Amino acid sequence: MEKTIATFVDDLGPAKIICIQEPSIHLQGILVVDNVAAGPSIGGLRMAENVSMGECVRLARAMTLKNAAAGLAHGGGKSVLFGNPKMEHKQKENLIRGFAYALRGESDYIFGPDMGTNEECMAWVKDEIGRAVGLPSEIGGIPLDIIGATGWGLYHTIDVALEHIHLPLQGARIVIQGFGAVGKHAARFLTEHGGVLVGASDSKGSLYNPEGLDVQALIDIKGQGKSIIDSTQGVAGGVDAVIDMECDIWIPAARPDVLHKDNIHRLSAKLVAQGANIPLTADAEKYLHDHGVLVIPDFIANAGGVICAAMEYHSASQTASMQTIEEKIRRNTEEVLELAKKHSLLPREAAVQLSRSRLEKAMHLKRWRIF
Ligand code: NAD
Questions:
Q1: Are residues 135 and 158 in the same domain?
Q2: Mind listing the pLDDT tens digit for each residue in 223-254?
Q3: Is the CB of 135 under 6 A from ligand 1?
C-alpha cells in the first residue's frame, strides 16, 4: 500500500524530511530531522542499498527518544545514503562528501556513524561541513567503541536495576549475545565488579562455562579476528544456544528481534538489559514483564554511545564523557524503574513517558510549538 506523508507525522515530528539527488555522481539520500526542541539533532548516517523512508523516520524517532531520555541538548535525526557500503573506497568518499555538502545548510542535523559508515566517513563529513561526531581521535574524536562507552553505560544500568530486584552483582551469572564492541566491554566492566560471565556468543556460535569464562582471553581471541568458539574455555554450541543458558542477567548485544514470541519462554534470566537496538519484539518484552523478568529498554540501557558522541561534539574529555555516561544512565534507570513501579507500567512505557515529558517541556520553551 502506498504511504502518504501523513502516515509518518505525529505531535513530535518529523520536523523535516529532505531528499537529496545528484544524478551526475549517482547520489541519492534522505535526511529525517525528527525533533529539535532540545537542540540540533544527532543521529547516524546509514549507508545501505535498501532503506525505506518509513524506516528512516522510525530510526530518527528512536534517536529523538534516546537523546531526550539521556537528557542531551540534542534532538533526533537520521540520514540514509543509498549504495553498497562496500563499494570502491574513493567512490564512497565522493558520495559521502557530496551528501554532506548537499546538507551543508542543515544546521539542525549533526552526522554520526551508523551501519555502513565509520569514523573515517565522519572525518570526511567534518572536513566538508564541520558537523559530525564519532571522529578519529587525531581530529578530536573519542574512540567510543575502544573505550567501551556503551558497555560502561550497560554496566551502570544493570547495577541500578539489580538493586531493584535485590540481586547482588557479586556472583551474578551473565550471558551475552554478541561479543562485539558493546558486548565485550559490558562483559569486562561487569566481571571487574564481581559478575561472572558464564556464556557468550558471536555470529559463529556460542560458548558456555558455568564456572565462568575469562573475559580478557575472549577479547584477545576476538582481537585476532577469530570467533569465541575458537576458545577452549568452555563448551561450544550453536548461535541459538545462548538463549537456553542458565543465568541471572541476559544481554542482547547483536541484532534486532532476536527474542520473540516463539523463543522467549526459553530464557531463564531475571534481568535483561538491552545493549542492541530493538533486540526484543514487543510481545517478547510483555511476556517477560508478565513473568516477573525486569527488562531495561534499549534507549535507556545503550545510550552510552550517543552520550559520548554528544560530549565529543562539545569538546569534552574522555574522562568527563565516561563520568557523564555513569551519571546520566544511573539517574535515568532509577527514574524509569520508579515510574514503572509507581504506575504499574512496562519499563519501556515508563521510558517513553519520561522522554516525551522532557520533549514536551522543551517544545513549550520554543517559539514555534509543534502542538
Ligand atoms: P559489533 O559489530 O562490534 O558486534 C556485534 C557482535 O555480534 C559481533 O561479535 C558479531 O559476531 C555478533 N553477532 C552477529 N550476529 C549474531 C548472532 N546472530 N548471534 C550472536 N552474535 C551475533 O557491533 P556493536 O557496535 O557491538 O553493536 C551491537 C548492537 O548494539 C547493534 O545492534 C548496534 O546497533 C547496537 N548499539 C551499538 C552501540 C555502540 O556504541 N557500538 C550503541 C548503541 C547500540
A1: no
A2: 999 999 999 999 999 999 999 999 999 999 99
A3: no
Residue from 328, 363, 309 nearest 110 by CA: 309
Residue 103 burial class via C-beta count within 10 angstroms: exposed 0-12, middle 13-18, buried 19 and up: buried
Last residue of a domain, one of 93, 114, 139: 139
Tell how far the Cα of 254 is from the centroid of ligand 1, in angstroms: 4
Q: Is 342 a catalytic residue?
A: no
* Domain membership of residue 174 as a residue range: 149-304+331-354
Are 186 and 275 contacting, i.e. CB atoms less than 8 angstroms apart? yes
144 Cβ closer than 6 Å to some ligand 1 atom: yes
Minimum mean pLDDT among 2-16, 90-104, 197-211, 274-288: which range?
2-16
Q: Most distant CA pair in the chain: distance in Å?
A: 62
pLDDT at 308: 97
Same domain, 247 and 279: yes
Nearest CA to ligand 1 atom 18: 203
**Ligand 1: does its nearest atom lie under 6 Å from the Cβ of 307?**
no
Separation CA 265–CA 286 (nearest Å): 12
**Distance between CA atoms of 285 and 294, rounded to whole angstroms?**
9
Quote the pLDDT of residue 368. 67
Count of domains in the chain? Answer: 2
User: Ligand 1 centre from 277 Cα, in Å?
Assistant: 9
Q: Which of 15, 2, 43, 79 is nearest to 305 (CA)?
A: 43
What is the β-pairing status of strands 173-177 and 249-252?
parallel
CA 192–ligand 1 middle distance (angstroms): 21
Top mutation candidate among 58, 114, 226, 255 for ligand 1, by most atoms within 8 Å of CB: 255
pTM, rounded to two decimals: 0.93
